Amino acid sequence: MNSLLNKQHSYSVFSLAVAISLLASLIISLLFDMQSTLFYWVANALYSFVIGSVGFLYLKVQKMDVIANVKIKTKLRWFDFLFVAVAVFVAINFTTPINSWFCQLLEDAFPNYTAGVSIPQDSNWFQLILVVCIFASINEEFLFRGIIANGFLSKGPVYGILISSALFALFHMNPAQTLPQFVLGCVFALGFYKSQSVIVPIFAHFFSNLSVLLLSEFVEPTGFYQDNEILLAVAGSLIFVAVFFVYAKFTPKVESEKVENTKVLAPTWVAFIFAIGWCLFNWIGNMVLA
Question: Could you tell me the pTM of the whole model?
Answer without folding.
Answer: 0.95
